[in-house]
């Protein structure tokens, strides 16, 4: 993905997520985990802050997964503390970091809205920053990104996890029709979509399936370059009503497996599936099996993973032990950063698990490179090996 498109995405995300903040409290909420001992003395350790979008660290998905990485680190290092700061004004995200930088050793910033922390990091070389889903913007060349020695910036190959979701859907569908629902057609979400479509095409070409991907033209997505990417998009991350409407439209077309990458809008899709009969969803970013409980049943087939918590914890550990190295990294299957739920909390058949294990190794080795938003490969033409 070129840097100009990354920065275009940053703007789109800020505008989209800002809508969520308009409906809620206009104050910043802080949650503190206190690691002081009985004397009130705080032991030597890292003072950590995580600054999030309005959905906060209990959103059950993106922000929460980052926060859980911090909590896991603190479990191993109880001399460290964390403040969770929910910034309700997305336009104020970078300023929110500026306001608190002097009080912490490490600041974790999940989301493209934090790409502009570059100058803050440069002005505070004794502080560490973990930037998730973005690379630092170059203040001198706004269309470019830059590496900063005290920022570890991570993006993810979402198309790999989407690819596994596509294989799972193709092998488990009964009706032979599957679909994808996205929130807004920003690159990480389109990556999931294109990977999913690549996985279905791969299964049709190599695994004996004959599956149709259903896309309803009125819900087609438009990416940050203005290109029609198809799929089924809510055009919002916090519109449960429309999320449900899109899912119902797919179900009416005979779709019985839906991959949902729509943030809060996906809750509506989950509701539609729970009200239907014989339909399953594939979760996104984190293990969403608990969200799939439907009486005595569960609607989650598996979940496509974007492993942020482990990578956040790794960098905190590196800071703690003095081995931190800043830079910009796109994390893939070879570091355990993409994948799918397979050990528990799934309803995959043994045959599907076997094929997914083979596919994972091929992706990990680079023998299969699924289509993504800007890698020059179209999912319609993708057959894999």
**The biggest beta sheet, please?**
7 strands, mixed
Q: State the distance separating the first and last CA atoms.
A: 23 Å
In percent, how helical is the residue content? 25-40%
CATH superfamily of the largest domain: Response regulator
Form type: globular
Strand order, largest beta sheet: 1-3-2-4-5-8-19
CATH fold call of the largest domain: Rossmann fold
Features:
Rossmann fold, 10 helices, disordered N terminus, 7-stranded mixed sheet, alpha/beta, 20 strands, 385 residues, 22% strand, single chain
What does this structure look like?
The chain is an alpha/beta fold and 385 residues long. It folds into two domains: 3-156, Response regulator (Rossmann fold, 3-Layer(aba) Sandwich), CATH 3.40.50; 158-306 and 339-381, Response regulator (Rossmann fold, 3-Layer(aba) Sandwich), CATH 3.40.50.2300. It has ten helices and 20 strands. It has helices at 3-22, 62-76, 93-100, 118-123, 158-172, 187-206, 240-252, 266-275, 308-321, 350-365, and strands at 29-33, 47-52, 81-86, 106-110, 128-132, 137-138, 141-145, 151-156, 177-182, 212-213, 221-222, 228-230, 232-233, 257-261, 280-285, 293-294, 297-298, 300-306, 327-331, 338-340. The strands form five sheets. A seven-stranded mixed beta sheet has the order 1-3-2-4-5-8-19, with helices on both faces. Strands 9, 10, 13, 14, 15, 18 and 20 form a seven-stranded mixed beta sheet that branches. A hairpin with a 5-residue loop joins strand 11 (221-222) and strand 12. The radius of gyration is 21 Å and the shape is globular.
Summarize the entry for a quick read.
The protein has 385 residues and is an alpha/beta fold. It has helices at 3-22, 62-76, 93-100, 118-123, 158-172, 187-206, 240-252, 266-275, 308-321, 350-365, and strands at 29-33, 47-52, 81-86, 106-110, 128-132, 137-138, 141-145, 151-156, 177-182, 212-213, 221-222, 228-230, 232-233, 257-261, 280-285, 293-294, 297-298, 300-306, 327-331, 338-340.
């Amino acid at each position: 993905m070129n840097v100009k498109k990354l920065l275009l995405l940053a703007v789109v995300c800020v505008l989209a997520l800002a809508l969520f903040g308009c409906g809620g409290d206009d104050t910043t909420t802080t949650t503190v985990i206190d690691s002081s001992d009985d004397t009130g003395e705080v032991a030597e350790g890292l003072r950590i802050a995580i600054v999030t979008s309005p959905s906060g660290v209990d959103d059950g998905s993106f922000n929460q997964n980052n926060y859980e990485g911090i909590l896991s680190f603190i479990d191993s290092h109880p001399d460290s503390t964390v403040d969770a700061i929910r910034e309700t004004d997305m336009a104020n995200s970078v300023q929110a970091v500026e306001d608190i930088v002097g009080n912490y050793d490490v600041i974790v910033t999940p989301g493209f809205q934090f790409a502009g922390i570059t100058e803050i990091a440069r002005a505070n070389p004794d502080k560490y920053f973990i930037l998730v889903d973005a690379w630092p913007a170059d203040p001198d060349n706004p269309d470019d990104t830059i590496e900063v020695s005290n920022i570890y910036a991570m993006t993810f190959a979402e198309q790999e996890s989407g690819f596994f979701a596509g294989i799972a859907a193709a092998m488990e569908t009964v009706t032979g029709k599957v679909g994808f629902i996205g929130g807004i057609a920003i690159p990480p979400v389109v990556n999931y979509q294109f990977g999913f479509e690549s996985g279905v095409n791969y299964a049709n070409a190599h695994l004996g399936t004959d599956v149709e991907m259903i896309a309803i033209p009125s819900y087609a997505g438009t990416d940050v370059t203005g290109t029609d990417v198809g799929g089924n998009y809510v055009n919002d991350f916090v519109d449960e009503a429309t999320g449900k409407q899109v899912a119902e439209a797919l179900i009416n077309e005979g779709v019985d497996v839906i991959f949902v990458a729509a943030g809060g809008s996906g809750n509506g899709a989950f509701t539609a599936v729970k009200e239907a009969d014989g339909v399953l969803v594939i979760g996104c970013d984190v293990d969403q099996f608990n969200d799939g409980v439907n009486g005595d049943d569960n609607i989650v087939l598996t979940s496509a993973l974007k492993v942020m918590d482990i990578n956040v914890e790794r960098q905190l550990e590196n800071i703690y032990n003095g081995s931190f190295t800043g830079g910009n990294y796109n994390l893939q299957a070879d570091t355990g950063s993409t994948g799918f739920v397979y050990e528990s909390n799934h309803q995959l058949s043994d045959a599907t698990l076997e094929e997914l294990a083979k596919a994972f190794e091929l992706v990990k080795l680079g023998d299969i490179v699924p289509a993504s938003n800007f890698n020059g490969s179209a999912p319609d033409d993708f057959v894999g090996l």
